[in-house]
Write a structure and sequence with these properties.
Length: about 350
């Protein structure tokens, strides 16, 4: 990916982020590529603004930059999906085979395809940290994979972190490798995403998230996963836990837009982005990706991608040859800030303008 002639045309993007910081989010980085070249990039705000949920200003407030690292939250699901599809290419896994082959006792109707389309009949989430407060991550993961089916298998759509945790565990058992190792070997490594992965080694580059007084250490969470379930599982899980930069997430989106190389084959990506016929969702659904999600796509109504609870989104429109990334820490120091949907739509609208 290169910086093209439009790379300096970021005044509008600068203004969009300036309007959102710090009211919608304390920090934001956005990047837009058109025809494979970065057409606009902007960063605003501070990686750490608050010390705690009392809105006490932190003494040191490092500025956000284009190279800042953010908790990607559910964008992590795209990395899990890509790793699973890579294993399927090698014949290690079958998307339509019962996962009971790897997790004995699991409902035989559950397949990876149903896990990746949120149609396996699982509840949306499971606070395993509260259920098993004294257990270690391995015991909690084992319990998560034994979560009973509580809804219809095969649809309708029920967005479920439980299903993606299970999918990640199946990938580990089938391959004999850890999930973070699989993502590194099969996704971030081949795509050259050097700043992306689980459990970042350098918290000083990472945007802070929510104030969680139940965790060790003072102040807001920084450098460890925000999601409670992923944290309880040791920081590595199929549904959350990946940290990365806007540039790296943009590279992932561009790789998928152009057919997946060198991480995936074009026919695999085509199946990933095919409408899987899921019912009950306000958008179409591929394998691990949403298609035309009004919550993130704005006017790019044919785009695919995903959002993250921390205030992140990736949107890719193959027809318009454009990819847009927004990374924020909208949960810092507390969740529930208004305006993130509008900010996502504004970035998508700017991407459409640049592509026109």
């Amino acid at each position: 990916m290169t910086y093209g002639g439009k790379a300096t045309m970021s005044d509008r993007l600068d203004a969009i982020l300036a309007d959102a910081v710090p009211g919608v989010c304390p920090a934001a980085v956005a990047m837009i590529a058109v025809d494979g070249a970065v057409a606009a990039a902007s960063a605003a705000g501070e990686l750490v603004r608050y010390q705690d949920a009392g809105l006490t200003l932190a003494e040191q407030r490092p500025p956000a930059s284009r190279g800042s690292v953010f908790d990607l939250a559910s964008i992590s699901k795209l990395f899990t999906t890509a790793a699973i599809l890579s294993l399927a290419e090698d014949g290690v896994l079958g998307l339509d085979e019962p996962v009971a082959a790897w997790l004995p006792g699991t409902d035989p109707r559950i397949t990876l395809r149903r896990l990746l389309t949120h149609t396996a009949g699982f509840r949306p989430t499971r606070r395993i940290d509260l259920e098993l407060p004294d257990a270690d991550p391995a015991a909690r993961l084992a319990a998560m994979t034994r979560t009973p089916v509580t809804g219809p298998v095969g649809g309708p759509y029920v967005y479920s972190d439980v299903g993606l945790v299970m999918a990640g565990r199946v990938a580990e058992l089938a391959s004999g490798a850890s999930l973070d190792g699989l993502v590194r070997a099969r996704v971030t490594g081949p795509l050259g995403l050097a700043a992306t992965g689980y459990r970042p080694a350098d918290p000083s580059r990472v945007a802070a998230t929510e104030w969680k007084p139940e965790r060790p250490g003072p102040g807001c969470v920084r450098g460890e996963v925000h999601d409670e379930t992923a944290y309880a599982l040791g920081g590595v899980a199929g549904h959350a836990g990946v940290f990365g930069t806007a540039r790296d997430v943009l590279k992932l989106g561009e790789a998928l837009r152009l057919g997946g190389g060198p991480a995936l084959r074009p026919e695999t990506v085509a199946e990933m982005l095919r409408d899987q016929g899921v019912t009950g969702a306000p958008f179409r659904h591929g394998l691990g990706v949403r298609i035309g999600d009004p919550g993130i796509c704005g006017p790019l109504d044919d785009a695919f991608g995903h959002s993250g609870f921390t205030g992140t989104s990736l949107v890719v429109s193959p027809s318009r040859r454009v990819t847009a990334v927004l990374l924020t820490n909208a949960v810092h120091p507390v969740r529930g800030r208004p305006g993130i949907r509008e900010l996502r739509a504004a970035v998508a609208a700017e991407a459409l303008r640049l592509a026109s």
